[in-house]
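Hi everyone, sorry if this is the wrong subforum. Our group has a chain we'd like a structural model of before ordering constructs, and none of us has done structure prediction before. Sequence below.
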Amino acid sequence: MLKTRVIPTLLWKNEGLVKGVGFDSWRRIGAVLPAIKVYNMREVDELMLLDISASLENREPDYDSVSEYSAECFVPLTLGGGVCNIEIIRKLLLAGADKITINSAAFEKPALITQAAERFGSQCIVVSIDAKKKADGSYECYSRGGAKPTGKEVGVWAQEVEQRGAGEILITSIEKDGTMQGYDLELIRQVTQRVKIPVIASGGAGHLEHFLEAVQQGKASAVAAASIFHFTERTPLEVKQYLSQNGILVRDVHFETVHSL
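Answer:
Right subforum, don't worry. Here is the predicted structure as tokens:
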């Protein structure tokens, strides 16, 4: 049985880290490199670094910065933002990324998912799905940083990206993002019930119980979060301890007194 992973998310904009609510109202919270160094010491399973302005600005990622950050990151690192062709994926992997996440380009040219999986392996291709709930209770996928509705229903799109070769799906509730009020469990289930590949839950974690709900009720394979780690004293290690105490298999965890760094 796969062990549940705990993955801090770092949102990168203009050389700094930011966090917002509902993909908006961004506030600067620090620098990328110090955050990576701190997380190296906090027993995280993976790190996710997303350049949230690259696609909106129609530019490629900053490969020099990626190389610098990856050299200091001692856990698997997923990079996203501005990924729109095979060459960019190749450059990011060469710069030190372990996995690549694709969002907007996946909607605009779905064949990219297949091409990337065939060339680099499904294990390093993560398709990111950002979604909002509609009046009828269904969920619609959005691209371009949550600004552009795609007309794609979440469950149908999740099945398609799996069929095209994606190795994982990152599912984020735009409305829950940054609220710290809990994951959208129904949204997560809309995906986990339709695919067999691992699903990473994102958007809304604010308490330890929220992570457990995402795994037990949402059936997520991994849990990603940002605000709870940036704005409270909770650490990824505490999340892993809590999950383990509640019967969830996690990667190696030491039960010791946790101090904020």
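For your construct planning: The chain has a mean pLDDT of 89. The first helix runs from residue 32 to 40.
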